[in-house]
Structures are given as structure tokens and as C-alpha cells.
């Protein structure tokens, strides 16, 4: 690990070292918590940052101290030639970690190549291990493909986690069966509070399955479940069931209890910088790049923007509401 690298801090003294980069808003699933059944108005290809622009962006940000990058979507592998993009960025010696979030439907053919490249972790989105519920939640019949990826990942050397969005009336009965996966497999299963980014103007049922309720549900089955230490910038509070090989995490994505240690920024699929999941975008990188700005000028824009970051997700949401920009976007556009 390179300990001599420079790190930039925001106006609240938090280091910014982690970039979540969405390479596409397109997805081959239609998960209820992410977009309507009819989908969203996907961006024309020219509105996406090209791979060359993405590589330039990563180069600028790693010079500012970004040391971890996670590629997200939509479903990243819907975008053609993504594996070649991974090959390029995995050679960036300023990146200590290169990770991926995927729904797993298109992943299987690429696992061995990702392993060879040294990809450091994969988050697999899986909200149920019941085929019928999977079809109802995703509105697609792709369960077997996802489970093929699950088993191939278990056979690989790539550490991976399962991300599960907890939804009233959709997958509550899966909370315990998913936790049971950690008995057999050395994986982490993380339960995520549902968020308002469903592409329908945030309309949806009120959040009832909060962090506390999820934990209470787990404790009702696992009386001896124990909290275990998490990393300094972890979004999840982590637990382990004694005797089980894996771990369990709960992410308070809607309650936003982890904002005080946030080291993450996002660039969404239309090339907009978000210094908080809940803001409306604070810098149009695509416009700046295509307007002819130099790397030095873009570097300075980033530095200025990072010094005007919202303290937490609630402040970020208040700012956009005050500017008459209510939450309307899909998580597929933002980057899951």
C-alpha cells in the first residue's frame, strides 16, 4: 500500500478516497425499489462518458487521493467492452482497490478474467433466494443465472458480499435464509434499508424496515449474534453468528447514521459528480470535459467542490428541496 500519497479532505475534515463510478444507467432487470416496471428514459449513448473520458476522470481523481473505485450501474456488464475497461483501470498503480457492484446475471463469463486482474471485491445484488420472489421483485426470470454467478464467485479468489434491499411485503421472509448462507459460506450478507430512488419521484411505501427493526428480527432468531468491528469508513454495522463462517451487515441507507465518516463520492452515468447520494449533483463533469478544460482546471474544480460538501444526507436533501429539486431519479442512473 502506498502511504505517501496525498489525500484531499472535505470542509468537514473527512478524507475523500473512494469513488463510486456508474458506467451505464441501463439494466436488464426492473427491480421494484430501483425503477418502474416500464423502465426509465435511458440516456442516449452520446450522453454517457466514453471509456476514454472515464479513464481521464479516474486519472485526475487518483491524483487527488482517490485510492478505491467501485464500478456500478445500472448493470455494468450491459455496457459493451466493460471487461477491457477493467483491464485498463486495474493497471492504475494509484488504485489500491478496484471493485464492482453487479446483479450477477451477466457476470459468470467474466469472473476468471476479473480474478486474473486482481479485482479486489464484488458486491452481488440479491434480494431473495426464492426463484418466485426473485421474479416478482426483479420482474425478470433470471434467478438461475444469478445463482450460477454466486457459486462461481464462491469458487474464485475474489471476496464478495451480497447486498439485499429489505422491502415490506416483498422479501421479509428471506432475511433469515440469507443469513443462513453465512453458515456455509465465508461471505458477508448485508441488509440495506430501502431508499426513495425508484424512478417514480420517490413515491412508494413508507420505510418500516429500519436498521433497528432488521436487527431485532435477526436477534429474534439468533440470540447470541454479536457485533464485530467495522472499518473506519464502513457504511454497515457488522455482526457475526457464533460458529458461522461469514458475517452479516446492516446498512442504514435511509436513516443515514454513517454520514459522519463518509469518504465516498459518486459520478453518475450522465457524468455528474455527487458528493452525497442524496444531493442533486454538484458538478457536471461531462460538460466541463467536453468544454475543453485541462486536467489542472478540472482538478481545481474538484477541490473547490469538495470544500462545499453537505455535512450529511439530510442536509444534502434539504439543499435540493430548497432548490425545488425533489428526488425523482432511479438508483440505476445514480449508480447502486
UniProtKB/TrEMBL annotation:
It is an enzyme of class 4 (lyase). SUPFAM superfamilies: Radical SAM enzymes (SSF102114). It comes from the Bacteria. Its EC number is 4.1.99.22. Keywords: 4Fe-4S, GTP-binding, Iron, Iron-sulfur, Lyase, Metal-binding, Molybdenum cofactor biosynthesis, Nucleotide-binding, S-adenosyl-L-methionine. One of its GO terms (molecular function) is GTP 3',8'-cyclase activity. Pfam families: Mob_synth_C, Radical_SAM. Residues 11-226 form the Radical SAM core domain. It catalyses: GTP + AH2 + S-adenosyl-L-methionine = (8S)-3',8-cyclo-7,8-dihydroguanosine 5'-triphosphate + 5'-deoxyadenosine + L-methionine + A + H(+). Its cofactor is [4Fe-4S] cluster. InterPro entries: Aldolase_TIM, Elp3/MiaA/NifB-like_rSAM, MoaA, MoaA-like, MoaA_NifB_PqqE_Fe-S-bd_CS, MoaA_twitch, MoCo_biosynth_MoaA/MoaC, rSAM. Gene3D superfamilies: Aldolase class I. This is GTP 3',8-cyclase. It comes from Fodinibius salsisoli.
Amino acid at each position: 500500500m502506498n502511504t505517501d500519497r496525498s489525500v484531499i479532505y472535505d470542509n468537514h475534515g473527512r478524507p475523500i478516497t473512494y469513488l463510486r463510478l456508474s458506467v451505464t444507467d441501463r439494466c436488464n432487470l426492473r427491480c421494484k425499489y430501483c425503477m418502474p416496471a416500464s423502465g426509465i428514459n435511458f440516456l442516449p449513448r452520446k450522453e454517457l462518458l466514453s471509456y476514454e473520458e472515464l479513464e481521464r476522470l479516474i486519472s485526475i481523481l487518483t491524483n487527488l487521493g482517490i485510492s478505491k473505485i467501485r464500478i456500478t450501474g445500472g448493470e455494468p456488464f450491459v455496457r459493451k467492452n466493460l471487461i477491457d475497461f477493467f483491464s485498463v483501470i486495474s493497471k492504475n498503480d494509484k488504485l489500491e482497490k478496484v471493485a464492482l457492484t453487479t446483479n450477477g446475471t451477466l457476470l459468470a463469463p467474466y469472473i476468471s478474467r476479473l480474478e486474473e486482474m486482481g479485482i479486489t471485491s464484488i458486491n452481488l445484488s440479491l434480494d431473495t433466494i426464492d426463484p418466485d420472489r426473485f421474479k416478482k421483485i426483479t420482474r425478470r426470470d433470471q434467478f438461475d443465472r444469478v445463482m450460477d454467478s454466486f457459486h462461481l464467485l464462491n469458487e474464485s479468489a475474489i471476496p464478495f458480499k451480497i447486498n439485499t434491499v429489505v422491502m415490506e411485503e416483498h422479501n421479509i421472509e428471506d432475511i433469515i435464509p440469507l443469513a443462513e448462507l453465512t453458515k456455509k459460506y465465508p461471505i458477508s450478507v448485508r441488509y440495506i434499508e430501502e431508499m426513495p430512488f425508484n424512478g417514480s419521484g420517490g413515491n412508494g411505501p413508507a420505510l418500516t424496515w429500519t436498521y433497528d427493526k432488521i436487527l431485532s428480527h435477526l436477534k429474534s432468531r439468533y440470540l447470541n449474534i454479536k457485533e464485530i468491528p467495522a472499518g473506519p469508513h464502513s457504511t454497515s454495522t457488522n455482526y457475526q453468528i457464533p460458529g458461522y463462517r461469514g458475517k452479516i451487515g446492516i446498512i442504514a441507507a435511509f436513516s443515514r447514521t454513517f454520514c459522519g465518516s463518509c469518504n465516498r463520492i459518486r459520478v453518475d452515468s450522465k457524468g455528474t459528480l455527487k458528493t452525497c447520494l442524496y444531493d442533486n449533483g454538484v458538478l457536471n463533469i461531462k460538460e466541463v470535459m467536453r468544454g475543453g478544460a485541462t486536467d489542472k482546471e478540472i482538478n481545481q474544480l474538484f477541490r473547490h467542490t469538495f470544500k462545499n460538501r453537505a455535512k450529511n444526507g439530510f442536509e444534502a436533501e434539504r439543499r435540493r428541496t430548497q432548490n425545488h429539486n425533489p428526488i425523482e431519479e432511479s438508483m440505476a442512473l445514480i449508480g447502486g
